[in-house]
From TrEMBL, chain A:
Ranges that cross the membrane: 12-30, 42-61, 73-94, 100-117, 124-144
Ranges in a coiled coil: none
Domain DUF1468: 16-149
Keywords of the record: Membrane, Transmembrane, Transmembrane helix
Record has Glycoprotein as a keyword: no
Origin organism lineage: Bacteria, Pseudomonadati, Pseudomonadota, Alphaproteobacteria, Rhodobacterales
Transmembrane among keywords: yes
This protein's name: Tripartite tricarboxylate transporter TctB family protein
UniProtKB/TrEMBL annotation, chain B:
Organism: Paracoccus aestuariivivens
Protein name in the entry: C4-dicarboxylate ABC transporter permease
Entry annotated with the keyword tRNA processing: no
InterPro entries: DUF112_TM
Coiled coil spans: none
DUF112 domain location: 17-435
Superkingdom in the source lineage: Bacteria
Transmembrane segments: 12-32, 38-65, 77-95, 107-132, 144-160, 166-185, 197-217, 320-339, 351-374, 386-403, 426-443, 464-483
Keywords associated with the record: Membrane, Transmembrane, Transmembrane helix
Automatic annotation (TrEMBL), chain C:
Keyword field contains Signal: yes
Protein name per the record: Tripartite tricarboxylate transporter substrate binding protein
UniProt family annotation: Belongs to the UPF0065 (bug) family.
Signal peptide: 1-21
Organism: Paracoccus aestuariivivens
Length: 166, 498, 330
């Protein structure tokens, strides 16, 4: 990557963040058991967070010395719009998964995402979304008995009703 | 004679033959889809085969196991998303090959070397099971600790351009692995008062996030560039090519068998260690590691398939599971009225030979199914990314959920996915994080056991290491690995070769 | 089956007739609080198919592990109290409060069936310099701190048995913690530890195979699978007042579940536990069948909790006094 010469946009902030996290985790690891004994539950966490903290410091030092990139911008090269949209969509998915249930959330997510990324017709997007979810449901729920969050579609009752017919 | 008839039982009985075939075929897909794991499939089969006889039940499970370990490599090569933790190393050289349009060739090589690795593991099970399990069981906490340290040192091989970033990632992984209630003392670690964190962060969730979501996000950069056209003329690798890598494959199969036979370590660690071994011992690879080196495919794939046979070694001889899947199989034997333990081989040797025979057969089916149908599989890479990426995201979510039926794991997976994306962007390698998570407990628990056993005396621990030949041997390897990466050693070696 | 239930409901004059007639009207989710391949998992997976026959519906089993089983327990507790989420648990939750592992325990649940209990046994590596319990105690007293006991963390069976031993004869040993009795018994065979308190079922095959030796059975009566091994009460009668004791497995639903659902599940699991295949399986592994339901099960749970909580509190393992949670002294 070209980043070995110039500092990429946002790189400084991200490394500052990692440095801060390391420091916080080290503090938290110290709180587990202090220096009670060599076999204490906090010994390995303290050692690893110390390594994190030191290496993060070293990386930060390197990053600080490099000149900022003048050819890249945060909005174009690191988080262009499609990536922001995807991250937001993923967050929405996580929030809606429990209340709406797996089936409607996934269909909705796929529909919006495919439509946004590919710009195919509404019918194609809806068909692909519904087909994919049906396939996933078949494999995970019916064959592997993974009970996904049910939400608003009473799938448990529907399956019981269908199987009662046979 | 008796042995032979039991060994051939799955071959002559058409029903068993069919079940092993079906199991292996299904296993490849179970392994290929991240989030569907062999462990999960086998535990569901316990209920599914409850009323069956023990032989068909085992035949199906063995098929799934063998196919599943191999199947993990498929998505690793095609999408850079390892289907199972044991395929993480495979992605490092497999995906670059797919990007060069050589996915079919890569899958072909992986299939053949997986077969070879599987074969060696089963052979070791059939011939040396008692002595190997005797060796494996002698590993003391300090030996497991040294093994974990050896594993941690793989960070060097997985780091890519910046070692210090690799070290950071590895340490972060170990810290993530420590999250939750410490089972040895019931003390909370990195829990911050959040109840859901008590159970720890599911490492499959971390893996799917880091490799599935983060990869999908970074592929969004080039969402509109057309997919690489795949050449699929040559799938079965040419014999000279196989022969060239056979010595390496045999060595890494040995690593896989032993690591698989050790209780508490499985194919995931075996594959990473083998990759590291290949990287250290291969003098002049045709293609550099990380850019599509064939050695980078041979080593992990022989090792993780050899670990299957290895995992059965302590299970069959002592009733001790070699990994998570054999643990469930022991439960299955028990449900079917058998008593897995040291007496099983004495009282029911036919069970041992039946399992060896079924494994052999599953291994052959793996080769067969692996080499056919590749053309269809490779088409996945040629699908438009605008459709593929959303589907990968949904599959990642389902997969993370399915591991422990937990929505919290989904949140973690998504969180690590976004975090992993930024790490990738800023040049942090993700492999060491997974390595750290895998090794975290092995290192932490055994360090504490080792030091407790010596009454908290570090000197006592060192004396213990020096006085045991096994520990001393492992310790020497650790020291050599560390020395060989110092600048002084490298200079020495360069002088000698010059 | 359906008719008799309908009849019973009519007699009791319940209003919710249609719902009652149908339970279960969809798949039931069964949460196992321990991992695949463990003993709770094996027991749950072997009793459920028999229970399903009576239930007339499917129970989909899933392992929800972590936090000494607290993660799985909390998940069932958060679900609706409609009988469609069932917990397969072991004894651990009864110690959550005193161990500060969680705020919920079986008092938030209704026992469907307390299936069976395990018999604790003390095993040692085959070349250990003692064969019986009194010899072991003597050896430990002569060599303080050198004997290594395996443990599975505070609150687990080994810690409770060790507390029992300590309460009768204070000894100095080194406890080496493992994350389950499987790994600890493996370590015993490799010589990393000397003695391990375990459940009979987990050790029986290795004892028969000569990979470890039985020191004493921690129960009031000898085990039919190991007739030569003495019980600790035979050599040391002072243990008579705390034994029998043992870890158990049970099926639970959240408190507030409709009575008809509890009744149906109880009936199903009672029948499942009585199935000859299941009984044979459990006894072959050295478990004692209990199959307690209703009041009986509740009493068993309460007694177990009070006995064990106080034992580990006095042994210095518990973090909070059982008194704080209103657990009576036995």
């Amino acid at each position: 990557m070209q980043s070995s010469r110039n500092r990429r946009p946002g790189e400084l902030g991200f490394n500052l963040f990692l440095f801060g996290v390391s420091l916080f985790l080290f503090y938290s690891a110290y709180g587990i058991s202090g220096f009670e004994a060599l076999s204490a539950p906090g010994v390995v966490p303290m050692a690893t967070t110390a390594v994190m903290f030191l290496s993060a410091g070293r990386i930060l030092w390197d990053v600080l010395r490099r000149p900022a990139s003048d050819t890249e911008t945060l909005a174009r090269d690191i988080i262009p719009l499609p990536i922001i949209v995807t991250i937001v969509m993923i967050a929405l998915y996580a929030v809606l998964l429990r209340p709406l249930g797996f089936i409607p959330t996934s269909v909705l997510f796929l529909f919006v995402m495919i439509r946004y990324l590919s710009g195919h017709s509404l019918g194609f997007c809806l068909g692909t979304a519904a087909g994919t979810v049906a396939l996933i449901y078949l494999i995970f729920r019916l064959i592997f008995s993974v009970l996904m969050p049910q939400g608003i579609v009473p799938e448990g009752e529907i399956i019981a009703w269908i199987s009662s017919i046979f | 004679m008796d042995i032979l008839s039991n060994l051939l039982m799955p071959v002559v009985d058409l029903k068993l033959l069919g079940l092993i075939a079906v199991g292996t075929f299904a296993g490849i897909y179970v392994g290929a889809i991240p989030g569907l794991s062999v462990t999960m499939a086998v535990s569901i089969l316990i209920s599914f085969t409850f009323s069956w006889d023990v032989y068909p039940a085992l035949a199906l499970m063995i098929g799934i196991y063998m196919g599943g370990v191999y199947g993990g490599s498929r998505t690793a090569i095609l999408l850079n998303i390892p289907g199972a933790p044991s395929a993480i190393a495979t992605a490092m050289d497999g995906f670059p090959l797919a990007q060069q349009g050589r996915a079919g060739e890569a899958i072909g090589i992986v299939t053949v070397v997986s077969f070879i690795g599987g074969f060696i593991g089963i052979l070791a099970l059939a011939l040396f099971a008692p002595s190997l399990s005797d060796f494996a069981i002698r590993f003391q906490p300090r030996d497991f600790m040294l093994l974990a340290v050896m594993g941690i040192l793989l960070v060097g091989s997985l780091s890519g351009e910046s070692l210090v970033k690799g070290v950071f990632s590895g340490a972060l992984g170990i810290a993530i692995g420590a999250v939750g209630m410490d089972p040895l003392t019931v003390q909370d670690r990195f829990v911050f008062g959040i109840d859901e964190l008590r159970g720890g962060v599911s490492f499959v969730a971390v893996m799917i996030g880091m490799f599935g979501v983060a990869e999908a996000l970074s592929q969004l950069h080039s969402v509109n560039t057309p997919a690489v056209k795949q050449k699929i003329s040559r799938i079965i690798p040419a014999w000279p090519m196989v022969r060239k890598h056979l010595p390496l494959g045999l060595q890494t199969s040995t690593i896989g068998t032993i690591v698989g036979a050790l209780p508490g370590t499985g194919g995931d660690i075996a594959a990473l260690m083998a990759y590291d071994y290949a990287k250290r011992t291969t003098r002049n690879p045709e293609t550099p590691f990380g850019k599509g080196a064939v050695e980078g495919l041979v080593a992990p794939e022989t090792a993780n398939n050899a670990a299957v046979g290895g995992a059965f070694i302590p299970m069959m001889t002592l009733g001790i599971p070699g990994d998570a899947v054999t643990a469930i199989m022991i439960g299955a034997l028990f449900i079917h009225g058998l008593n897995p333990g040291p007496m099983l081989m004495v009282e029911q040797p036919h069970m041992f030979w039946f399992i060896v025979g079924s494994l052999m057969l599953a291994n052959c089916f793996m080769l067969l199914f692996g080499l056919t149908g590749i053309k269809l599989f490779v088409k996945i890479v040629e699908l438009p990314r605008t459709v593929l990426i959303p589907v990968i995201l949904v599959l990642s979510i389902v997969g993370a959920y399915a591991v422990n039926n937990s929505v919290t794991d989904v949140y973690w997976m998504l969180g690590f996915g976004v975090f992993g994306y930024f790490m990738k962007e800023y040049g942090y390698p993700l492999g060491p994080i997974i390595l750290g998570v895998i090794l975290s407990r092995l290192l932490d628990d055994n360090w504490r056991r080792a030091i407790i056993s010596e009454q908290e005396s570090f000197g006592g621990l060192m004396r213990g290491i020096v006085s045991s030949p096994l520990s001393l041997c492992l310790f020497t390897v650790v020291v050599l690995i560390i020395l060989s990466s110092t600048p002084a050693w490298k200079m020495l070696r360069r002088k000698r070769t010059a | 089956m359906l008719k008799s239930l309908l009849g019973a409901a009519a007699v009791m004059g319940l209003a919710a007739l249609p719902a009652l007639a149908d339970f279960p009207e969809k798949d039931i989710q069964g949460i196992i609080q321990w991992g695949a391949g463990g003993s709770t998992d094996t027991v749950a997976r072997s009793v459920t198919p028999h229970a399903e026959e009576v239930l007339g519906g499917k129970v989909i089993l899933q392992n929800v592990t972590g936090g000494v089983g607290a993660i799985g327990l909390n998940q069932v507790e958060r679900a609706d109290a409609d009988g469609y989420t069932v917990l397969f648990g072991a004894e651990n939750p009864l110690l959550y409060k005193v161990m500060q592992l969680g705020q919920k325990d079986y008092s938030d649940f209704v026992p469907v069936n307390v299936l069976a209990r395990g018999v604790p046994i003390l095993v040692a590596r085959p070349d250990a310099p003692f064969d019986t319990y009194p010899e072991m105690i003597e050896y430990i007293k002569a060599n303080p701190k050198t004997v290594k006991f395996g443990s599975t963390g505070p609150g687990g069976l080994p810690s409770v048995v060790s507390s029992m031993i300590q309460s009768k004869a204070p000894i100095e040993v080194t406890f080496v913690p493992y994350d389950g009795d499987g790994p600890a018994l493996t370590a015993l065979q490799g010589g990393a530890i000397d003695v391990m308190p375990a459940v009979l079922g987990a050790a029986i095959e290795s004892i028969k195979g000569g990979k470890m030796k039985a020191i004493a059975i921690f129960d009031t009566e000898a085990a039919p699978q190991l007739p030569e091994t003495k019980t600790v009460v035979e050599t040391n009668p002072e243990f008579g007042d705390i034994l029998p004791w043992g870890p158990f497995f049970g099926v639970f639903v959240k408190k507030g579940t409709p009575d008809d659902a509890v009744a149906k599940l109880t009936e199903a699991y009672k029948a499942g536990a009585a199935h000859p295949d299941f009984v044979k399986l459990m006894e072959g592994r050295g478990y004692k069948m209990l199959s307690l339901t209703g009041e009986e099960a509740q009493t068993y749970l309460n007694d177990w909790q009070s006995k064990t909580s106080w034992l580990i509190w006095e042994g210095g393992i518990a973090k909070k006094s059982p008194e704080e949670f209103g657990i009576p002294k036995p």
